[in-house]
Amino acid sequence: MKSFKQHLLAAVATAALFFSACSSQNHVAQNAKTADFPEEKLGWHLGAQAYTFRLFSFADALNKIDSAGLRYVEAFPGQTIGAGSQEKMTYELSTEGRALVKKLLKDKGITALAYGVVGAKDEAEWEKVFQFAKDLNIQVINCEPNETQLDYISKLCDKYDIKVAIHNHPNPSHYWNPDVVLKAIEGRSKRMGAAADVGHWMRSGLDPIACLKKLEGRVYHVHFKDLNEFGSKNAHDVHWGTGKLGLQAVQAELKRQKFKGMISAEYEYNWKNNMNDVKVSASNFRAALK
Asked: Global pTM?
């Protein structure tokens, strides 16, 4: 008959084996995560701008983002929530609507990190946008504000601890050139920076690498695209790494700058069936990193 001491030693040995096995499983799971999402090691959060799926509801967009192998979303104003709700993704979203959005995100394991491209008519409305973003734990608001609004937007950034990233649409939009963005954020909150849309720079005939270098230290978000042509407003999206962007060169510059933040896939082509285009692009992006 075993003594109490022998039983105790056996129990300790069994527990040690159990915890060792758990540790080994966790290590394997962590390695698998790193292999599947190599961008995470760099502090990059690869996701999608929900506008990519603008023909569908936010709930449907989350399903497509999940199917594309992505875990982050940049919500855009005006998209119908879906899942039984006809409300829109704006600051006017009801308490029930916000609860539904949070549930949809949680159920899919997707995090909403950014919101945009959004605008507002005055300081009071901008504050409602910030309050809405804070409620959804949004980290970055992407926008193209009127320059007369920049001073109070700067104050709202600090009040709510939310970054504002000024987005560039193609020339002749106001912020098409990074020099204009730099001037706009000069002397204002350090939470104000740029939402760098590399595809729109290409449409404007600007070198994305040179633009990123100008904005070094103030790039807070990236809209990622690869286009079939350079310098043409008629250029359209193609699978990343197959167009004129220079995928690895852009990755290298973001690495050099030690960029941390969300990279939104914004695939504005093949609108009705572009989920697989996003999936292939994300796969190409990760393969290029490896």
From this structure: 0.88
